Amino acid sequence: MALQFRTAYIAPSSRVFGRGELVIDPAQIAKRYLRFYFIIDFLAVLPLPQIVVWRFLKSSTGSDVFTTKQTLLYIILLQYIPRFARVIPLTSELKRTTGVFAETAWAGAASYLLLYMLASHIVGSFWYLLAVERYDTCWQQACKHNATCNTDFLYCGNQYMTGYNSWSSISDSVLNDACPADSDNSPFDFGIFDQALSSGIIYSMKFVTKYCYCLWWGLQNLSTLGQGLQTSTYPGESIFSIGLAILGLILFALLIGNMQTYLQSLTIRLEEMRVKRRDSEQWMHHRLLPQDLRERVRRYDQYKWQETRGVDEENIVQSLPKDLRRDIKRHLCLALVKRVPLFENMDERLLDAICERLKPCLYIENTHIVREGDPVDEMLFIIRGRLESVTTDGGRSGFFNRSLLKDSDFCGEELLTWALDPKSGSNLPSSTRTVKALTEVEAFALTADELKFVASQFRRLHSRQVQHTFRFYSQQWRTWGACFIQAAWRRYTKRKLMELQRKEEEEAEALAAGSGSSGGPTYSIRATFLASKFAANALRGVHRNRNLKSARELVKLQKPPEPDFSADAD
Length: 570
Known about the structure:
Blueprint: E1 9-10, E2 22-23, H1 26-36, H2 38-45, H3 48-57, H4 64-98, H5 105-144, H6 164-178, H7 194-199, H8 207-223, H9 235-264, H10 268-286, H11 291-308, H12 313-318, H13 322-338, H14 348-357, E3 359-363, E4 368-370, E5 378-384, E6 387-391, E7 401-405, E8 410-411, H15 413-420, E9 434-437, E10 441-447, H16 448-457, H17 464-473, H18 475-517, H19 522-555
Antiparallel strand pairs: 1-2, 3-10, 4-9, 5-8, 5-10, 6-7, 6-9
Protein name: Cyclic nucleotide-binding domain-containing protein
Family: Belongs to the cyclic nucleotide-gated cation channel (TC 1.A.1.5) family.
Domain Cyclic nucleotide-binding: 342-426
């Protein structure tokens, strides 16, 4: 109640749009609380039962005990009305304000179980009080049917009244015969309170024993909706049983139902995954997919479940405000993006723009991410895993280049060239390589539209440093550079070989000329020399044609298109 005088509220008249205006004026808060809920809260927390017990019940004697007991019963019953009138609206207000009753599933289940136990405690307490009332009623009826008895004799403090001694000598037999606790043929029908008498809890002086037994009785009959109760014709007992059955039904529908919902929320993702797998299996069976495709679908579903646990991260992030979405993306992606050499030296604004537009991607083993000749619609930055990048230069026979991509590498660099070209149209570039996942791969993808936007908004991408980094890590440029170096090396080796052969020929001619001047058989030596020279020239021509053809094949590989790095950053 003290907190209610300091708890702000939203003015109902301001709820036209948005959350409304929050009233923080202490005077207005106190005035509103005093006008509506102060009286109800005051009656709910007023310790009237304790006052009656400690002030009146202990000092009462004779028939005053009965009056005090009845007053105490009515006070307890009536005081539960304002308590229920406040507990139920407060619970509803909590759900309406915060959206949930508890943050975690276990906390919600425990809260509803606690409320159910509290209801069992209340029902058990009322059952104990009404059992005492029925036992007292049985005594009074037995006393009225006995001429010696006076109802005042039933209460402590009246042992000095006239006729009490004669009554005390027969009181045990009269009361036990009229109100037996364990007899099936009792003249007084205790109904649902017979169990309280037979168990002896109304005679017991042990509080823990009484409390636990009554709590168990309330919990048992609330759970079974009072199906095992055998009532008498007493109206109050029938009304209590009807109320117990209705309360048990309501509590079972609300509390136990909500608790079950909280517990099921722990496995709801597993159930969704199971249903999705079942639908996928039925669809693959209906479409007669081959076994290898079915196995790939199963492995992808399993891998995606292990990574995300069934949570659609992209939709969750996209539903948040722009500023919060940018901060979350920065937290998740910035460190990973900086591992990519192409972006490690970029400024913070550009990195924020890239992080905001990245989307996570998962690929299983042996997945073809892009094939040679297909349009490239996204640039992929590898976070974890290994990929194979292969090119045949458009299917040219005799040409094959293979490279491996690992963490911090990227593929789809044709898209960056397309994005940096201000004259590029809407047609996406074609892939020059086939990229295949060798292991399970986690990566971030930047789509064509997003990359085009970033390239047009940030001039930092046009710097020479980015140009050199792009050329160094681009697989397309690496392949062209390797082929260019290989062709130059072959031309160099061919030139060296030709020079060496020319020197050998010159030495042979000099040797032949020396032999002719010595007067020997010059004719046969010259014929032999000319024949060997002709054969060497013919063989050299074959080698030259072969080398030229090989060099031309290497030179045929086109130089990759140069991105527009002309606009240097200031």
